[in-house]
Amino acid sequence: MTSALPKLPFLPFSKPTIDEATIAAVGEVLRSGWITSGPKVAAFEARLSEYFGGRPVRTFNSGTCTMEIALRIAGIGAGDEVITTSISWVATANVIIEVGATPVFADIDPVTRNIDLDKVEAAITPRTKAIIPVYLSGLPVDMDRLYAIAKKYHLRVIEDAAQAFGSEWRGRRIGAFGDFVSFSFQANKNLTTGEGGCLVLNNADEARLAEKYRLQGVTRSGIDGIDVDVLGGKYNMTDITAAIGLGQFANIDKVTAQRRALARHYFAQFGADFEAQSGAQLPVADFENSNWHLFQIILPDDGPGTRARFMQRMAEQQIGTGYHYAPIHLFTMYRERGFTEGMFPVSEKIGRLTVTLPMFYAMTTADVERAVAAVKTILIQR
Length: 382
What we know:
Strand order of the largest sheet: 1-9-8-5-4-2-3
Shape: globular
Low-confidence stretches: none
Number of domains: 2
Distance between the termini: 30 Å
CATH architecture of the largest domain: 3-Layer(aba) Sandwich
């Protein structure tokens, strides 16, 4: 009688890597007696500013509030329209409503899965004041075209680069150029602080206004002077999370290189015939611009329950999966604002069939091979 093969450990679709030096740095902050915004936040902002070519950078407790604050700094509010994509985390559209403006969705490109810039230009009206593009999986849109459209129609751009830390456009880092650029440092991002984010701004005046918005609108002067002249919130980053960010930042180039190497291995393992054999769609094989925050495939459409069945079968093989994202315009709150099925067919199809496969810094090539083998068992040998 043969014994059963040992069960392989579960392979999650994402997992942060926190080294011992970073853990020790957090301990030092806790022992210091100064755990809210302080010297670590200032040091983290300085490192980020240097990374982005000297542009002013301010950190926050989430990547969501950075977009809201950018909209407020840009003066966008009631009566204004902001164009964005429906394939994103719902925060991208929620912040538009939060400032009193109206979200306008444009469909996505079926290949890149990013917002279709032709559709963006067609959606512009006299009320349009800004565009919020999203760089899905860390792949930028055509930045030259994006900013040409913005210049032509006098629009602000708030880049939702939540997934794009370490991504580039034609040799220039995302964040080192452009208008407002928002990054997330949430737990599964390439650089994490646990929760947090940063906003890259254009000048010192915008940076000062961002500081007001992140801490109740307060301006301090002298030893005891205080004033409030704008309505702010409570969005500051702590020194605890900044210490994590500093530790993560020290390895960002290695993280980006490793993710690109893992992505290359995914493509090699899937092989040239995978799409024809399976009916699935692989992502764009971009190893220059994308930071490969996610590795996503589009499943062949086998009707209702396609993705749920696939994810369940992957879980049975000890492989974790996710999906990014459900179409925002089909959520109840957005349906109540007049959005319906059929308005953005590419977004709806991809939102229903997209699956995220494992991708994180500590993964090995053997992990990639496990994931690909499981996918092929389900989609080709079905």
